[in-house]
């Protein structure tokens, strides 16, 4: 009987020790679940992934990477992270990273961010740790013209983001982008988006002129579609009936197509006159990316 009692007491003591050790480990180094949901994320292809970060005492702590398919579905929504980091995080930030990434730090391409309030953080592009603006105040004008060619019969084959009434002056009023992002103009021709060039400064020429003629263009973003047409298109063309777009693109860019963020768009009227300024429509609210981080 004494032997049985001693054995039982030993088992009880061992169980108690294991229980309290387990509790101590949970307090000191346990994990908890971060839940992420997003509206508006797009498929980045095979070369890039999304990565989440907790900002803990000013330091970025990864929560893991995930992908998004063509339907916007995330490869996973729940992420096991340090309970201490999750409890003490002030902010969540989502970035775009190379799929093979030798750098353990976050990239400059911050998509959305949000500060935790209690158990959740509302994630927006306008947060200072992301793009810093929601782009709902962006405005734009453009004209149809082909200044890089002497041919006056193809004037609706080019688009330039300028305002003739301003001298001419800049046609776009856009917030300054943080590192990791650039603006890009587009003309959607017969359903196919064709770039007009990437830029950061709306008061200067953009960074490329792949389809323009040999004459100098105005010192503003824009493009003449008169040469080197992409497969499936013929230049010069007629932009009437097409769509003009300003998008916000990650740098480096993951795709030859426009990114999700498209603050300005405009459908070109079939009877649109050349050398006449047209006002673009603000499309930011329809294309902004939002999300929630729950802890």
Can you characterise this structure?
- The protein is built from three helices and 20 strands.
- The strands form four sheets. The chain has an eight-stranded antiparallel beta sheet. Strands 8, 9, 12, 15 and 18 form a five-stranded antiparallel beta sheet that branches.
- With 295 residues, the protein is mainly beta.
- The two termini are 51 Å apart.
- The chain has helices at 2-29, 83-88, 284-287, and strands spanning 31-39, 48-56, 59-66, 78-82, 91-98, 110-117, 120-124, 139-144, 158-160, 162-163, 169-170, 172-173, 181-189, 192-199, 222-224, 243-250, 264-267, 278-279, 281-282, 290-294.
- It folds into two domains: 31-132 and 290-294, no CATH class; 139-287, no CATH class.
